[in-house]
User: Fold this.
Amino acid sequence: MENPLKLPLTIKEKKNPQDLTAPPKYYVQAIKAGTVGLERLAYLISNQSTVREPNCLAVLSALVHNMKDELAQGRVVSLDGLGNIQIGVQSEGSETRDAVSRANVKSAHINFRPSKKLKKALQSLDFSMKLG
Assistant:
């Protein structure tokens, strides 16, 4: 059985913004260890397969391009083992159906719903506490 990954955590002191006189509380927070881009992913994939790095990068770039197109058409993009991605909107309500227009839309955002496989992986995640 493989060892679970260890997510690094730290402790952060936070004041209550609604009551600045209250004593602070301490919270556990995940440590951001950096960002991985398409070039790094292409490199990693090429080292785990027989596909060369430039070909991996081309496929990943095409994936991003096509995901944007599919999302813009209102489709849900399902990345098996990872989850579903779709575009959602925030809007203001109108008193009547006829009063609703594009002007009601205030912003668009991305909705991500993790797959069952990813949720299960999170349940077996181990943690390492970094003090200080």
Observations:
- The chain has a mean pLDDT of 93.
- The longest strand covers residues 105-114.
